[in-house]
Each structure stands twice: as structure tokens, then as C-alpha cells.
């Protein structure tokens, strides 16, 4: 009863986290769109988000008791960490450009193509093939995005390209972030903090000489909206972006990857719906149909990918099951009460033949391992010596002999060669 109550509490906890994740993500996108409409500086918005990650993550990780970053070599920084930080910055910038140029609902519809980029990049970078079911699951995603693009009333080419570039960048980040976590043993939130901090340091000079200089010379920057309101929106957007990353990683820690993928697709539906409700951008029925067809395609991809992973694990276990099913599974009692293994003749295995090595042998053939395995007696054997009572009648070897002599080879009954 207590265990059942604990499981129910865990389910409620995850559901509350998912609800909070949907609310925070949707609010972050609405705030970001509202900010960028009157403050068209996507690099500045990105820099504030990176600053928020650096500022808020440090005390949070200390409060959570997450260990400090592991020892990472300088060569690994150059090969993996710095490119990831670089990718995080550029993916975030292009994501903000897409939200700035096109409606949030359409930007997130285009981002539903992430499975397509994941499959494509895995194929190009790692020669990883997918099942036919996985490839077919990409069809409704591409079709849905195509319908949404054709029927989008506020279509913008720059917004479409920016959304595709951001999606491709996030796919690359997802692939190589998992590799970095495996290589370094870092906590996922520690890696997020590290990448945000490095990206902030690397691109502060870039920001100063691009948008920083433009903001100073833009006389209308605080005319479109009061300075206090703009600063508050920037700070709120940065905090919400950090919070949604934190909640997302927490959910991933509590649920399976498939559940997380489904929750992420559901989150996209929530973001599209709330953005349509609050931002009120004009849409058509065909536009909505394309959006939800793309999201449903993402759900189908997640299920197909999960089935493929399960099939791969079962295939990896096949050799073990074959060894378990083709070795001795019956035992024959002797007159003196001794039990010896009796091998199945249909596999043409002699009771004196040394079975092939497999780690599962010792666990699945306990009795056999105590009295064998036995070496093969070659043709022309001299017989059994030292007053033994061995016999090989009916494919059964009795167990009272001390050694076997075969053409000058003396072998102990438990399979170790004594002399040659």
C-alpha cells in the first residue's frame, strides 16, 4: 500500500513538473515575441539569456549539491566544449530571429522538423541507419511543415531559414552534448552552466561591436517602449529561459526518454495554442492542420524510434539466448545417485567435447560446471585408466574416473590438461 502511494506521488510530481514546464515555456515564447516586436535585437536577447544561465545556475547547483566540474583537458575543450558553446550561441540567435520575423506558432511548427535533422545528421556523421518505420514517420512531419508554410499568412523567408538553421543547430547540440556528458561525467545542469558561461565570455566582444553599438546609436530604442519595461522584459525572458531548461532537465531525470519526447511534443502543442490565443496572429484552418500534422508526426517518430531501440536490444540479447537453448538442459542419474549432464544428441555434441566459452555458461549450467566441461576424446583413444568406472554408453559419462589416457595425452576429469 505504501509503495502504491509512493508511485502515485511520483506520477503527480511528474505531472506537476510537466504542467510547470508547459506554462514556463509558453510564457517565455510569448514574452520573447513581445520583446522582439519592439526591441529587434536578437543577439542582445541571447546574451541576456546566457547571462541568466551563468548567474542563476551557480547558486542552484551549489544548493543541489552537484559536484564541481570534472577535470577536462585543454584539447577536449578545443575539440568539444568550445564548439558546443559556439553552437549554443548561434542556435539561440537564429531561434530568436525566427521568433522575431514569423509568428511563434509557425516558428515552432518549423522546429518540429528536428527529428528529420537528427536522422539526417546521424546518417551523415555516424553512418547510422534507421528502420523503415522511422523513415516513414518523418513523412507527416515534412508534409505538415509544408502545409503550414504554404498557408502561413505572415510568411517570411528569413524567419523560415532562421528556424531551420536553429533546429539543425539544436539537433547537433543534442547529439554532441550526450557525447560530452558520457566523456566527461559532468552533471547535465553543470554542462548547461559551463556552455552558457563560455558562450557569454566568447561573444561579449562580438555583441559590443554589433548590436551593442547599434543600441547606443538607436534613438528610438526606448521610444517604442519605456526603458524600464524593456529591461524588465529582458530580465524576465532570461529568467524564464533558464527556468525552462532547469525544469526540462529535471523531468528528463524522472522519466524515460520516450516519455520525455512525448512530453516535449505535447509542450510544442501547448506553445502553439497559447501563442495563438494571446498573440492573436491571423491563421487559417489549413495552417492549423499543417501545424498539428507536424506535431503528430513527431509523436509517431518518437514511437518508431522507441520500437527500433527495443528491437536493437533484443537482437543484442539473441546470442545469449541461443547459448542457453543449445546446451545441456537435462540430467541423468547414475546408479550410485550421482547426477551428470546429458547432452541433446540433435546438436551432434559429444558429452566429451569442450563446449564453446560463453559468460552465461557458468550461470545457466551450474551443475554442468561442477562436473565438466570435458575435453574431446579423439579417435584411437587408448581408453580410461587408473581403475576408473567411466562409460560413454547412451551419451552419458559416469563420474568416478580419475583420468583419461588418449594416445599419450592424460587429462583430468574436470577438463584441465595434466600432461602431454
Structure description:
With about 425 residues, the chain is mainly α. It contains 13 helices and six strands. The strands form two sheets. The chain has a four-stranded antiparallel sheet with strand order 3-4-5-6, with no helix packed on it. Strands 1-2 form a two-stranded antiparallel sheet. A hairpin with a 4-residue loop joins β5 and β6. α1 (about 1-40) packs antiparallel against α9 (about 225-255) and α6 (about 130-150) packs antiparallel against α11 (about 285-325). The radius of gyration is 32 Å and the shape is globular. Mean pLDDT is about 75; it is low at about 325-330 and about 340-420.
Keywords:
420 residues; mainly alpha; two-stranded antiparallel sheet; disordered C terminus
Task: Give the rounded overall mean pLDDT.
Answer: 77
Structural class: mainly alpha
Overall helicity: 55-70%
Name the poorly predicted regions: 326-332, 342-420
What radius of gyration results from the CA coordinates? Answer: 32 Å
User: What is the tally of beta strands?
Assistant: 6
Series of H and E elements: HHHHHHHHHHHEEHHEEEE
Count of separate DSSP helical elements:
13
Distance between the termini: 66 Å
User: Could you give a short account of the major beta sheet?
Assistant: 4 strands, antiparallel
In one word, what is the shape?
globular
Strand content: 5-15%
Record the strand order, biggest sheet: 3-4-5-6
Amino acid at each position: 500500500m505504501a509503495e502504491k502511494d509512493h508511485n502515485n506521488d511520483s506520477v503527480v510530481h511528474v505531472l506537476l513538473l510537466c504542467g510547470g514546464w508547459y506554462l514556463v515555456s509558453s510564457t517565455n515564447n510569448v514574452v520573447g515575441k513581445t520583446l522582439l516586436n519592439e526591441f529587434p535585437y536578437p543577439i542582445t536577447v541571447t546574451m541576456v539569456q546566457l547571462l541568466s544561465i551563468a548567474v542563476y545556475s551557480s547558486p542552484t547547483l551549489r544548493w543541489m549539491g552537484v559536484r564541481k566540474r570534472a577535470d577536462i583537458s585543454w584539447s577536449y575543450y578545443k575539440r568539444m566544449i568550445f564548439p558546443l558553446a559556439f553552437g549554443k550561441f548561434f542556435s539561440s540567435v537564429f531561434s530568436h530571429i525566427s521568433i522575431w520575423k514569423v509568428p511563434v506558432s509557425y516558428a515552432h511548427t518549423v522546429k518540429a522538423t528536428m527529428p528529420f535533422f537528427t536522422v539526417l545528421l546521424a546518417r551523415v556523421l555516424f553512418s547510422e541507419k534507421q528502420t523503415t518505420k522511422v523513415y516513414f514517420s518523418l513523412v507527416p512531419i515534412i508534409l505538415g511543415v509544408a502545409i503550414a508554410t504554404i498557408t502561413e499568412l505572415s510568411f517570411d523567408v528569413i524567419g523560415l531559414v532562421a528556424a531551420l538553421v536553429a533546429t539543425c543547430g539544436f539537433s547537433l547540440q543534442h547529439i554532441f552534448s550526450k557525447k560530452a556528458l558520457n566523456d566527461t561525467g559532468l552533471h547535465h545542469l553543470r554542462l548547461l552552466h559551463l556552455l552558457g558561461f563560455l558562450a557569454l565570455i566568447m561573444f561579449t566582444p562580438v555583441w559590443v561591436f554589433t548590436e551593442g553599438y547599434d543600441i547606443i546609436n538607436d534613438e528610438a530604442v526606448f521610444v517604442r517602449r519605456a526603458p524600464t519595461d524593456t529591461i524588465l522584459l529582458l530580465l524576465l525572458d532570461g529568467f524564464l529561459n533558464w527556468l525552462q531548461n532547469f525544469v526540462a532537465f529535471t523531468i528528463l531525470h524522472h522519466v524515460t526518454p520516450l516519455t520525455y519526447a512525448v512530453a516535449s511534443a505535447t509542450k510544442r502543442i501547448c506553445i502553439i495554442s497559447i501563442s495563438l490565443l494571446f498573440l492573436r496572429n491571423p491563421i487559417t484552418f489549413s495552417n492549423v492542420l499543417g501545424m498539428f500534422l507536424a506535431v503528430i508526426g513527431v509523436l509517431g517518430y518518437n514511437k518508431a524510434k522507441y520500437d527500433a531501440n527495443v528491437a536493437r536490444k533484443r537482437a543484442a540479447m539473441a546470442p545469449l539466448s541461443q547459448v542457453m537453448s543449445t546446451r545441456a538442459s537435462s540430467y541423468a542419474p547414475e546408479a550410485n545417485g550421482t547426477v551428470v549432464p546429458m547432452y541433446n544428441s540433435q546438436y551432434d555434441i559429444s558429452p566429451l567435447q569442450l563446449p564453446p566459452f560463453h559468460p552465461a555458461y557458468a550461470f545457466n549450467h551450474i551443475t554442468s560446471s561442477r562436473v565438466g566441461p570435458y575435453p574431446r576424446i579423439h579417435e584411437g583413444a587408448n581408453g580410461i585408466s587408473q581403475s576408473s568406472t567411466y562409460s560413454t554408453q547412451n551419451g552419458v559419462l559416469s563420474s568416478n574416473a580419475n583420468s583419461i589416457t588418449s594416445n599419450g595425452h592424460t587429462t583430468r576429469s574436470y577438463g584441465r590438461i595434466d600432461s602431454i
